């Protein structure tokens, strides 16, 4: 028993001194975001990581289990939209019964996300904030058929603009806020940079963003990079082979061993003549400095997919932007962020706090 007590004591010391840390907050010294930082009940306090999920791999394993076994969610309605090139996208709604002037969260999903995989976050925002949620579903995701020879793992702003216009048309009196999760944060940041001040979105959150697409995929840990590349190839490329097999780069794309190789050869599938054109038209960092709305970027330093070096490269740039707030935590893994003994999401709480703060400022 003595060795067990000693091991537990050592773990608790390690947990308190190494695992549990106050988030690192970076923003302009005179930023409008400083008002939120001072208001926040979370940013000045330690993030108490779930003790039995104390490292990045355990967090991701538990996240996978939660996605698999969490209760199902029945959305209120699915609006299917047809893009100019006949591509099929959609908006999934929850909270249609709410007053028309109640805020709406516009949600952009992960790299292989679906209405089913996003249900926990959708349910949280709907119940905790009392908001309507509009999930923007990309081509080929969530059971949508591929109806055009164009697919981009990161999505495209043209499709998102159409979804956003549809959401705004359905609820013109509703204030719109946006959250992009992982790959969805890239589409969101790209759109916000292109739009500048000309957007109905009042405030936004990038949850575990990857930043610069030119280097981000090469920094992902090998195991996760290989696993995700195989999943993307299986779910979106080989399944829709008839749409893409005529492209010269298709064979190299489906033979890719990791995310970096896959995206090196995915430009034609995405509708671009070469890799440079793909980056110029997809990379969120090209128009990033033009983002004009209050935006929170949340990254974990132990993220094995979107490496923290991706964020480090842009700390100084973000600190020069009056509307940008970067929050980095020691732990959290990739879109996991479990806290406490009950393993609830710390990130979900932070996102809700941030968006509620800016919504209250609008009133």
Question: Could you explain how this protein is built, in words?
Answer:
The longest helix has 18 residues, at 2-19. This protein starts with a helix and ends with a helix. The model has no long low-confidence stretch (mean pLDDT 96). It has 15 helices and eleven strands. The protein has helices spanning 2-19, 33-39, 56-69, 119-129, 157-170, 183-195, 213-219, 222-237, 241-244, 250-254, 259-264, 275-282, 308-312, 315-319, 346-362, and strands at 24-27, 77-82, 88-94, 104-108, 132-137, 176-181, 201-207, 295-300, 324-329, 338-339, 344-345. The strands form two sheets. A nine-stranded mixed β-sheet has the order 1-9-8-7-6-4-5-3-2, with helices on both faces. It is α/β, with parallel strands linked by helices. Strand 4, helix 4 and strand 5 (132-137) form a beta-alpha-beta unit. The protein folds into two domains: 24-212 and 288-362, Rossmann fold (3-Layer(aba) Sandwich); 222-282, no CATH class.
